[in-house]
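Regression test attached.
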Amino acid sequence: MICFALFSWYPMVREIVLSFQQNNFVDPGKWVGFENFRTVFADPAFWAAWLNTAAFSGLALVIGYAVPFVLAVVLNELKHAKAYLRFVVYLPVMLPPAVAVLLFKWFYDPGSGLFNQALGVVHIPPLSWLDSTSTALISLVIVSTWMNLGTGTLIYLAALQSIPGDLYESAELDGAGLLKRVRHVTIPQTKLILLVMLLLQIVATMQVFIEPYLLTGGGPENATVTVAYLMYQYAFNFGDFGGGSALGLMLMVVLLVFSTIYLRVSREEAER
Amino acid sequence: MTTTRRGLSLLLVMGLGLVAASCGTADKKQAGDSAGGQVTITVGCEPPKSNPKEREAWEADVATFQKAHPNITVQGKDAFPCINPDTFQAKLAGGTQEDLFYVYYTDVRKIIEKKQAADISQYVGTVGAVKDLRPDVMGVFKANDNTDKTYGLPRNNYNMGLVYNRKLFTQAGLDPANPPKTWDDVRAAAKKIAALGPGYVGFGEYSAGNTGGWHFAAELYARGGSMVSNDGKTAAFNSDAGKAVLENLKRMRWDDNSMGSKQLLQWADLMRMMGGGKLGMMIGAPDVVQSVNNDFKGKFDDYGVTAVPESGGQSSLSGGDGYMFNPKASPEKIKAGLQWLEFHELTPGKGQFDYARAKAQGRPVGLPIPDLYGESAPGQQINALRKQYATVPVDNFTPYVEAQGKITNKLEPPKAQELYAVLDVAMSAVLTRKDADVGKLLADAESKANKILAKNT
């Protein structure tokens, strides 16, 4: 509990304090009320950061939410090579995030990158990937999805395997094919875990930082600047911890809403 | 339930207690402070063990210094790179900042404004070399409030130029002894280098992580422009010079196709491309060649540096690094620290200027930097030693050196990082979008910059 208080509560409380202070870490902090919030509100990148964060989360839900579930269903249905394929799916999780992100930097290279070379094989002209305002954000979502695919798939797989086999057998006896079994057995039986994962994914993706930090530096034209990245800019590049903490507090409040819903849902699941 | 609540209350009290403790004003006496005339100083940027020759030289210098000053103990703190912006504030907050901490010019103004460095004005007079230092270099470490207070001393100084790959120039049929003097020359040379084949980039430019805005400032100064008005309160880059910077890049990127297709480059990207031998030119100072040689597999002989095109009679963005003092350092530590800096960073023939030793160790000698003294006596002495012990092809830097007399060093603008972040947008736009409207980009950036400059933080 002491460790929890020191490493989890203390930074959180400290962040709240800092967001209302001007602090140079030498003199005692000076209370400035909502000045830090006004500063970040007036920042030209503020709304871009929130819109990009929301868009990133939205795109991550469209792409990153469905893919692990589908993969889990497929893996669950397989009769052979299950263990091997589970390992293959989980492999990206084992790579340090920085390595995975830099690997994609090479994949996205507009000249010699793997993706454009693959497109060339089917006579599709090369894409700008990270260098275009229309594709940069979605390119980051693809990296993020790839990195987190394994964890999501394994959680779904565990949930699928807890579904009583006789339900599937009854469905099969009634003549249900794969899609019908998924619709009438799998989805209703995993409803709560699907909801929990949805909320967890929203909380995780809204904190996206490493992808814009390493791949795009927030560009082009602020197209990939996110709230967490802007927070980093304030704290470490502008030396304004007050502004960074104010942004952090705003993000925390938003995430708190989703976390509260998550807690309620997971409590329901536990009581089920 | 009651137990849970009591437990939570206890945790909350502990959390608040920790916060209160962190907000305390008690100024703890630092370990290693003077006792019986003895003083210990911690100094940042000791060369890391992975750089054995420089480390050996540092340790020899510490031994020599301590022999001459038996009451002072120098404790080096090694790190690579010497400063990491991520840890600077944390070290200050945690009380682990060195007594003499290492800084880039870019951060000096911010540190002074935030009162995160000690005022050394009353002690700095003991350093004899200070009177010979270039006034513009000393200006970097002074407050911008007409009080003439001093907060640090320099270790390195240069201004921006044009770094080019001599080997690629030769391959492309260009004369490496006659580098570009105008931006038209740069365009023509870049086209020839890009024509060498896939992967070759004629001219590389940054546009992300605030580095785009930084290079915009460098190119703007060299065209005679300014980032901010004289009083520093409004943006001044939305000018003919500012437009010329962006228009020129846009033409090279889209009309000439000589800047490669990969953009959003940051600091290490261009270094890597230079070291890999595929990049023809970039804006940078002689320290770029040093970095490319030491850390990115390039060879000294392959690179040359000249002035930024058309910068004669104009200004060039100055850069460099130095040391500032922990705001909690005692007067004894500050005095001892100044003695160390005078010995190690500012004395011709000693410390960083011990070129005889550097040559004996097989380290590069001959770069025209640091330029701390200009034409004053110590400057001439350092240049003579540099020439005497040169191990790198000094002729490769001749165009840069010759241009220095016609170029004024100019400091970075106030709120530099914030302005650079704003200008990253304009730089990334012209390099990634063919239809980018330069006038609108600069007008938008100007309006955003004015808000930042008006902000009183």
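Expected vs. actual: identical. The radius of gyration of chain A is 22 Å.
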